[in-house]
Amino acid sequence: MGDPALSRRGFLAASAAAGLSMTALSGCGGDSDGGSSDGTTTIEWWNISTTQPTKDVWAGLAKKFEAQNPKVKVKIVQLENDAYKSKMTALTASGKLPDIFHTWGGGVLKQQVDAGLVEDLTDRTKDWAEGLVPVSKQPYIIDEKVYGIPFDIGMIGFWYNKALFKKAGISAPPTTWSAFLDAVGKLKSAGVTPLALAGKEAWTGMYYWAYLAMRTAGVGALQKANDDKDFTAPGLVQAGEHLKELVELEPFQKGFLGASYSGPTGQSATVGNGKVAMELMGQWAPVVQADTGKGLGDDLGFFPFPAVEGGQGAITEVFGGGGGHALRSGAPQAAADFLKFFASEATDLELVKKTGVLPVVPAAESAIADPNIKAVQKELTAATGFQLYLDQAYAPALGQEVNDSVAALIAGSKSPEQVTESITDVAKEEQ
Amino acid sequence: MTSTFLPDKRTGPDTDRPPPAADAVRGRARRRALNWLTAVSFQVPALVLFGVLVLLPILFALYAAFFRWGGFGRPSDYIGVDNFTRLFDDPVFLGDLWRCLVLVVLSLALQLPFALAMAVALNQRMRGRAVYRMLFFAPYVLSEAITGVLFSMIFAPGDGLADHVLGGIGLDGLGGEWFADPDMVMATLFLVMTWKYFGFHMMLYLAGLQSIPRELHEAALIDGAGPWQRVRNVTLPLLAPTLRISVFLSVIGAIQLFDLVWVVTAGGPDHHSETMAVTMFQFGFKRYQVGYASAISVVMFGISLVFALAYQRFVLRRDLEGATTTMRGGVK
Question: Is the pTM of the predicted complex or chain greater than 0.90?
């Protein structure tokens, strides 16, 4: 049974990670301002667009920017998501960031801002950033100052199978929690599994708790709880209780506790193959459904997370996040110009059309062809409140604890009170 | 052992022995010093690598375990043994220890005897023996990650091969949620581990069996020993060194189990299949509580070390004794 090489392999992985950080540390030294003798400025642009078609589209945009600004060279550094995150952690520790870098905003960006590594863009972007979709700018505003410019925004909501809803006799998507629980009951009695959940990947369950917390305790409650290091507010306990109501209906697919999200029999595939009626997921869900399963085509619909009766939140408040770019403090003016270029209507039209992101420039909406993405966009532009993904908004240990405790609640081993208590314990520890 | 390399004090230049003899002694001493230098210079590269890649990380983990540390910059927030007290208060970690024990007991009680039985069976003359040997050993060659992906498909609740096969032979009742069922996940995991690793132990035993002289079996036969008596009194005692090594590898493997669990369940559902290494990974690389994760790794290291030393001292002593005597003889 035993394999003595296991530990060695683990160690290799760890040292590889360490080596990676070392290269990152050294890679960022040297030509600090990117200026050279012939007056051209080189700006480094770090992003995570390693997949097609985005990779080529972005490279094309960099060329276009270079053509418009002959004295500027754009050097693109592309890293896969996880590698990027670990490199950036190392760079943050070393105190030097790339000129332009990908950011999700929230807690990580705040850390970098607190360390004095990020350029304050409030004044430099005022003229042209005004018109961007308001929620899309939210993750990058820290202490009322702008530290990043978005190029993508998305949100979590319910993706549902219209045909299965019809079969169960549900005429319209539910807008309240009790109507939602009713719909779950109706689907069950029609012999349809109501919800798909990837229990193996704890973040998928966390969406329910986070949304319920926003609906019961109000949109600011999750941020406030983090600031106060106290998650025991009655509204947050109630969120757990509502989630428990749902779990007690046994709405999830068989074996959901061991299911992955995008595996061949995972959450996404079961919905995409028409076996399960709904999943709570981000705007990327249709793509993943079509990838892991057959995809639902016209049968696929989207509705926002229902409001909870008597709660302080509204159905128009969204839980989501996106992608943006920030500049290192002291980055050359060309970098700021690039942000402006990247957030222009022409660029955004191209991004929406070719790479499938949601527009941050309202006028680029016209480029959306998919009715479902249009529905998401409608919710986003009309949003009255915003909460960033908890793994971005919170410190890593806290985000993981939320995922873990909510997973335990769903598995039935923690009570709603215990969830808030263990999250609070970790929050206090992290100070 | 080292003393044989050092110049002997009694033969130093201050003795009153005649000059020619002293010259010879000095020559021998110089040769010894040269030998010693050669030995050292050959060892330095390996020692440096071992030091930098093995010893230093171990020592550093030991150091980091006493800090609250996020993994970047220098550990500065010294918290004494807090990480360790927290560890032994953590129901997940205590569960890890319990699950580790369960795996060790199951492997020793079921997996190794099964491997032994297969080895004894495949040591007989029979058709297709090589094919069976290869088939049973093949899973061991597969990477843990591939095994994990494969079996999470086989044991997919409702849809997987396992449920279909059981349904096909009318045993639907035995099908279940496998990895998704908190009460069944360890049993399922053990099944996969047995599938994967028994071939390795079987090969060890086969090698051991082949080194048992046939004459002994013949002698036992002549003495009228039955098949079971021959296994009990000839095979097992002579296979004992192999068995001891196999038990050792099996236990150490159970303590450090990671890859398979990570791929199949990531420790879930709800920590019911989590191992020490998985917990360590969660805290070290997901939560960035590297100090706490270091404490876990130190405890893991401690358990492995204590087990390894105790096992060598009390169980492997006889096997190793031969080796040390040979080595002592070799130096002279």
Answer: no
